[in-house]
User: Fold these one by one.
Assistant:
Number 1:
Amino acid sequence: MRSCEEVIQRDLCSRCGSCIAVCPSGALSWRDEEVIFDRSKCIECGLCLKVCPFVNPNEVPLAKPMAYLSARTRIPEVAERCQDGGVVTTLLIRALESGMVDEVLVTASRNNVLFPVPIIARSRKELLKTCGSKYAYSPVLSLLRSISRGERIAIVGLPCQITALRLMEKLRLKATENVRLAIGLFCFQNYTLRTLVNIGLGELLNMRADEIKKLSIRGGKIIAWTVNNDRKEAPIAPLDAHALPACKVCQDFIASLADISVGSTGSPEGWSTVIIWNKKGEEAFRDALEAGYLRSKPLGEEGIKRINRLRRIKARRALKYIQDNPELSALRVR
Ligand SMILES: Cc1cc2nc3c(=O)[nH]c(=O)nc-3n(C[C@H](O)[C@H](O)[C@H](O)COP(=O)(O)OP(=O)(O)OC[C@H]3O[C@@H](n4cnc5c(N)ncnc54)[C@H](O)[C@@H]3O)c2cc1C
């Protein structure tokens, strides 16, 4: 295999965007929620395979963190808009305002709060537009194509995206030389917009996308808030069958290659669970705390247990999927 064509054809592509960023001949692009491969432009350099999180999975999904915490923002405009405790946006605002980074690669919404679009943000105002989870694919790493002048950057990504980012760093690409902070989001699985809108909203909640102000997937439920502040919820299980193979082969629930990871599992509503993986993550978090941007408390044993349970379930599901589809292993051998 000399290109990622087969990975794309078999829906093993997690749409992280790393291949689009590294392809030197423009053979890969993004259209209608898909990575498009143009064989006529491919020079078979194999770079796309070197940065693909399916081909080179994170094999330490149960790695041991430095610390577990619960935290929430002290910035009122973030609290009004954020998904959980607003820790992600707050860490990014602090990183920009303290001068630690010049730009951040994040996911905003387009047309509707639920529809993702990757953007480069350079101010608090721009970051406020990126608050909230969009449960669909956002090829945020493709933006690394536009980073070439040595800008210091922070990135927010799902576990697959953080794995791909680390693969890009190993290749010593100019765009990743100055990544100062990688924030990972917990993720059990993601969805295509078609699945989210037709099945998640239509079949499970009997709602249209334009009625929704905020969507959350937590505790086995899909929960929607309307523009009139009504709340509707339904069990999420029927969506499982529609997850792409790309998500079913991923072992990593908490982005264990990030500097710091953030999710909802383990913390009460309105708070974020924070996992610190290394010194970079610890410094960014401590700086935001000391500057009065965040408040935090220890995460209880019960919270840690819930996280570890989901980590094991996700890792086991991936191993079983690969066992049940043995031909996939061959795609990982380059
Ligand atoms: C697809 C998806 C699945 C998730 N699954 C789980 C889960 O199973 N369990 C759990 O505990 N938490 C999960 N999360 C994380 C959770 O929903 C929150 O993102 C997290 O708790 C951070 O909350 P916050 O208030 O700090 O974020 P905010 O301050 O509101 O910031 C949200 C950040 O998320 C980023 N973002 C939004 N959508 C996407 C996307 N599609 N791709 C990449 N980045 C995005 C934005 O760039 C923004 O920086 C998931 C998130 C997503 C996007």
Number 2:
Amino acid sequence: MTFQPLIMHIDGLCRESNLSGALPATDELIRIDQAVGQGFKAKNLDKDVRTIQESLNQISPKQGGPKDKLKVDGICGPRTNKAIQDFQLKQFGLKGMDGLIEPGKQTIQRINQILFSNLPIDPSIPEQIRVQLLSHINLVSRSIHAAQTNLLLAMAPSSGLDLGGGRANDRLDRHFALGAQKGTARDQTIRQIQGVFTMFANALLMPGALGTGAFEMDPSGDPRIAFTFANGFFRNGEIDEARNIRRDRIFLGRRAFFALSDSELCAFIMLHEMAHFVGFPGGSFILDNGRGWFTDSTISKLSADQRLHNADSYATFAVECRTGNSAKPPYVKAATTSR
Ligand SMILES: [Zn+2]
């Protein structure tokens, strides 16, 4: 039984680690592969431009961030170029204002220093956080409901009336690789997945400090994205003495999670964390066997059993059930775990 929290790092993978003292070096936090901005060195890869747009949006105007948030579209147009220059001007003066952000160089390092510093936070932030969380939780709740409906449809006996059971089963096959399972074995697996989503729904009803289920703002100031305890759902009222935090909570990072402006991405992270938090019926853990959409090689190589114990499988399944769209959303990132 593990008592270390599972912490989602900047690369999106959750690992068991301690809250403080294990922070990655600041220049490892936000990464781009190729230069972004103006000039012949700028490659402006879609994902790199998005990283920069998202990062600059998290920086306050008094530190050189854009006054009006940039559209996160992966296109390095005039507004993004101006935002890069404004940030450099504010941070480094005229001589540092070349309009170019290169991997590992001073501008990206400064962005990381600002976003991931452990300076005390503004006391007005908890109220903003509550408001933000309430808007994300609506998407989370709708995703859970859509998943539950899909699971009921998948179990419904074929009666001549097409309720969408075929499509519902296709979704299960895509996200959980249940294609080889038939008959009662398949029904049993579907009931287990239902059990997971029943626990998701219950986790939303837990009386949390923010009034929104098991979710709470990270009390430690650890800047990583989110963390929870595996099967924390069943650790009702337990306190982690060493860290002075409850084990029956999902903690969202004050600087990383709440700096994200994309509600879809936030809801996705919350669904992912909920899977770790509730675990699989019978008590086994749901960990990270791979991150990504079912079309990513990080996921497609996983067996049904690995996917049933993989947090992203539940998050991606719930997202597709809600949207009805099987195409990979832009905020889902593939990553391989070293587990
Ligand atoms: Zn995880």
